[in-house]
Fold:
Amino acid sequence: MANLIRSAKPSSKWSTIELYAFNITIESPSLPPPPVTVSDVILNNEELPEDNANCTKADRQFFYLMGDATMPGEESFVEDFLVFLLDLVDYNCGTRVVHTRCELEFNMCGETVDAKPDVGVFDGPGISGTCVLLAKVDKSGTISEAMLIAEAIAAFTDACRIARSIGRPAPRMKTVAGIIMDRTTPAYYKIPITEELIYEVMAGQYPQTRTVVQRFTPVSPSSKSGYVRGV
Structure:
């Protein structure tokens, strides 16, 4: 793999080849139990119950947005559904804010390339916020895990830039949370990005230390095996 040809590519062009080229693998451990509970109406029903007089506003919005997210050709509806889910589980609590269509960048093989996650959760407002979670929406079968990992590299690069701009040392590593939404089915990722990986991507070289990304795929009645599109 060290002999693969490497060239600068934006995150939207990353594929299996880039994962091989930069010694990145993906493993699938068991999904841990969720730390947040949601409404029993949401957990125990596949659609809004006909007798929904006692349902909350959140219950109704969940099923309405989920239905919209399954409509063909409406990728933005999937983003809306994901933003709602992040709010439902209070992932945007405290100083965290959610942005859609955010723009990041990183250096690959000596060139600056772009990375554009569909949804990003930032700890802090504006240009001072660091990305703690990013997500891709896959409605056409073209989104790869490699694209998500490239965007995590961009998120780490951005965190280093912010640290230096306020006179602090850049972090040596950062674990970025990631999600790929296949319509309404999520797959979750823990993506460790290190100073070494950033340097090797920048230089277009093969890292001696392997980066192991963890993929967590929930099982549901509508998705027996979770996200399986691969890389």
In short: DSSP finds six helices and nine strands in the chain.
